[in-house]
Structure formats: C-alpha cells, structure tokens
Design a protein that fits this description.
By secondary structure, the chain is an alpha+beta fold. It has 2 domains: 119 residues, Aminopeptidase; 149 residues, Aminopeptidase. Helices cover 27% and strands 33% of the residues. It has a 7-stranded mixed sheet. A 6-stranded mixed sheet has the order 1-2-3-4-5-6. The protein is elongated.
C-alpha cells in the first residue's frame, strides 16, 4: 500500500535505511513538498522524499526499498506516485540524480536522460509565463491572521459579507489550514474540515486578487487533497454559489473547480440562508 505524506515513525524509518545499508538522511519532512511510503500491512518497506525550492522545481531524494521486498515493482510504484503528487501540488519540473546502474530504473519511471535528470510535469514541457518565483506553502501561523484578512478584503465579490469573513478568520487557527506566501506576504490560504471519517471538505479557499490565475489556488487545493489522502480520506467536497443564481464571479469559481476534477453533486437552498448552494465532489 502506498501512502502519500503519511505520518511516519522516525525509528521505523531509521531501521528501513539501516537494513538497506544506507545512512538515514538528515531531513525534516515538514519542509518537503511531499513524500511517499510503501507498506505491507503496517510494516514500512519503502520510502521516497520530494524536496523543493518553494516554487516550480522539485527534487526526488532518498529512494529506498527494503532488501527483502525488492524486484516487486515497489520502487517503481513509489517514484511514479511521487511524480503524480508533485504534479498535483503545482511543481513543474522534477529532478533526480542517480548512479549509472540505476539509469534504466529511472527511465522506466519517466525521466529522460540529462546531466541532472529532469522530467517535465506540465503538459507541453514549457514553463508557463505566469510562474511565481518565491512562492511557498506552509501551515497557518498566528501571525498570518492580518494577511488572510487582507486577502479577503481584496476579493469582496466572493467575500463581501463582514460577518461571514469574520467567522472564516476565526476558524483558521482551529482547523488544518495552509497559507501560500510570496516574499513573506500571504497570497492565499485554504482550510479543511472533516465532516465524516473518510470525507473532507475545503471549508474556505481564497487567493488575493493580484494573484488570480497564477496557480496558487491549484497548489492550495492540491495540498488539501494530499492532507485528506494521508488521513485515509476517500473524497473531498466544496460548496459554492449554485448556478441557479447568475453570477459571473461564481461562474469563475465553478469553472476553477471543474478543471481540477470536481463534479457537481447537488444544489440546495437549505444550506446557506438566502443563497442556492452547489456541492461539488472529487474522489481521492
């Protein structure tokens, strides 16, 4: 079983590297873009880490499979899963360095030979003009409150009801929340709730007006989905204004979610007072 960015026991991880005759690398997983672990039952048998530069480049590191479990396709599955996780989180290039004896393995994983080892994660192999240098994603901290309030203030077409924005801001410290920052300033954020053991919901997602269309929302959605999968989530849902009330701004919102794989489930006038509510869902 593959588990993207699941919580790992440090002792068990050390043992995996030791039994593979490798030294456990010094890293803090919280600083990684993602990682993938392989398990047989509850036993850890494989691992790969994906570090990143906080922007468009990610780096495949520390691939390992327990010696007793090699030649079963576990390593290939680990790396391919890591590629998809990095892509879903908004990375555009994935780098890897390897010894010559591993060249065929990484070729089968999708890497093309270069001096550094490089794989394009966007469809056409070209970096989009809208790339953002200096973008970082991290967990919400108390000092982000004012920045999140400023994001809301910049998009009153979506968040123009003071009581609602105040309620959202109050929710951020108590929920799993991530912020996207550019040069230290908050550019967007997402918070997640868990209404059922295997069902998650994006409680609120907002990106500052100046940064719309630059991939920040997509990266935040990817983070929330990765978090849900790591918690054994099977679906993610989101609520927005339903199409029965014409609104050009919310049509943009619905289009955004549809492009990310969310499908309309139902519209109801009983969820939000005075507004038709559309529920969109995505299988994880």
């Amino acid at each position: 079983m593959l588990r993207p960015s699941a919580e790992l026991d440090g002792v068990e991880l050390d043992a995996l590297f030791a039994e593979s005759e490798l030294t456990t690398p010094a890293f803090e997983l919280e600083r990684s873009l993602c990682w993938v672990s392989a398990h047989i039952g509850e036993r850890l048998v494989g691992f790969v880490n994906v570090a990143w530069d906080g922007g468009r480049h990610a780096f495949l590191l520390d691939s390992v499979v327990h010696p007793s479990c090699r030649r079963r396709g576990i390593g290939l599955a680990l790396v391919r899963c890591a590629v998809e996780e990095a892509r879903s989180l908004g990375a555009e290039w994935l780098h890897v360095d390897y010894e010559a004896r591993h060249a065929d393995f990484y070729r089968r994983c999708g890497f093309r030979p270069t001096q550094a080892g490089l794989i394009a994660l966007n469809a056409d192999g070209e970096a989009p003009e809208s790339r953002l240098d200096g973008l970082a994603l991290r967990r919400y901290a108390a000092q982000d409150a004012d920045g999140c309030a400023s994001v809301f203030a910049s998009i009153p077409e979506w968040f123009g009801v003071p009581s609602a924005t105040a309620a959202y801001l109050a929710d951020l410290p108590r929920l799993p929340t991530w912020v996207a920052t550019l040069d230290g300033s908050v550019a967007g954020f997402v918070a997640v709730v868990r209404p059922q053991p295997r069902a998650f919901e994006m409680h609120v997602l907002a990106v500052g007006r100046s940064w719309h269309g630059r991939g920040i929302g997509r990266a935040l959605v990817g983070l929330s989905e990765r978090f849900a999968r790591a918690q054994d989530g099977r679906m993610m849902q989101v609520k927005t204004l339903g199409p029965s009330r014409a609104d050009a701004f919310y049509e943009q919102t619905r289009t955004f979610y549809r492009k990310l794989g969310y499908e309309p489930l139902l519209e109801s006038d009983r969820l939000w007072e005075g507004a038709p509510t559309l529920i969109l869902v995505k299988a994880l």
